[in-house]
Design goal:
The chain contains 13 helices and 12 strands. By secondary structure, it is an alpha/beta fold. It has one domain: Homocysteine-binding-like domain (TIM Barrel, Alpha-Beta Barrel).
């Protein structure tokens, strides 16, 4: 099957289902807090494949890759800065194997952990490290790059430009928002969903939205805000499974699959096009989301 481009598939009115969490899924399989997750792409590929397969089997149309921290600045922390290409290509190949020919691989690009406002890095540094990662992700077989969990506009724009300049990948751009005391949603750097969406689309993003954050509550408001300025651009939402709770020293995300799926009709009504999950969401959550999406589509016939 020729998958085509994600944006073309969405023009038919489809609601696509993305995957769930990768970090917490790998932790449940033995990844410790001090380990480099991306190293598992070569040292424990079977376990990484297990995560990817679990989401496809649960009904995901698209899955991410274990490459969230695969940029050079992050990998240098683990002494792995010279293995950017290897680890990113390996991560995509694993997800590609799980996705098969019918589903999309949206390769994860996360923040570097550096900020230009702190003098840690320049925009040129951002561009260079994201270009290196993006080239490897495309070479591994990705269909798109999801530039996710962003809070600073300059970093996100550098990542989008790096992907657009150096690959043919579609670009998905998501920021992490938190509620303010005034009831608005802003990133840590004070960016609103409306501002982030407009600026990233102007830079070349094909799909925009939100991920992570304070759980699924408030996502309807974020979708509506984006839709108020961008009525025709596809929107993706990948929320955490509720607010994390510390249980025996371990962060646990309490939202059940049913609770997550119950939000989906509101998101679809508000204009979402792709629904998935972030921290704490499991294949059981994705299965419930898949069932809800299919049910809504059946009732629309």
């Amino acid at each position: 099957m020729n998958r085509g481009r994600i944006t073309e598939a969405l023009k038919t009115g489809k609601i696509l289902v993305a995957d769930g969490a990768w970090g917490t899924a790998l932790q449940s399989r033995g990844l410790s807090g001090g380990e480099c997750p991306e190293l598992w792409n070569v040292e424990h590929p079977d376990l990484v494949l297990e995560v990817a397969k679990s989401y496809i089997e649960a009904g995901s149309n698209m899955i991410e890759t274990n490459t969230f921290g695969g940029n050079r600045l992050k990998l240098e922390y683990y002494g792995l800065g010279d293995r950017v290409t290897e680890l990113n290509e390996a991560g995509v190949r694993i997800s590609r194997k799980a996705a098969g020919e019918d589903n999309w691989v949206i390769a994860s690009i996360g923040p570097t952990g550096k900020m230009t406002v702190m003098g840690d890095v320049t925009e040129e540094d951002f561009y260079r490290v994201f270009a290196e990662q993006a080239i490897a992700l495309e070479r591994g077989g990705a269909d798109a790059a999801v530039i996710e969990t962003m809070s600073a506009l300059d970093e996100a724009l550098a990542a989008i430009k790096a992907v657009k300049d150096n690959t043919k990948l579609e670009v998905i751009s998501t920021f992490t928002y938190e509620p303010t005391v005034q009831g608005e949603f802003k990133t840590m750097m004070g960016l609103s969903p409306k501002e982030a969406a407009v600026k990233t689309v102007e830079a070349g993003a094909d799909i925009v939205g939100a991920n992570c954050g304070k759980g699924y509550k408030g996502m309807t408001q974020i979708i509506e805000e984006i839709r108020s300025v961008l009525p025709d651009i596809p929107v993706i939402i990948q929320a955490n499974a509720g607010l994390p709770e510390l249980v025996d020293g371990v962060s646990v995300f309490p939202a059940t699959p049913k609770e997550m799926a119950e939000q989906n009709p509101y998101w679809i009504k508000a204009g979402v096009n792709i629904i998935g999950g972030c921290c704490g969401t499991t294949d059981a959550h994705i299965r419930a989301i898949r069932e809800t999406v299919d049910s809504i589509k059946s009732n629309d016939r």
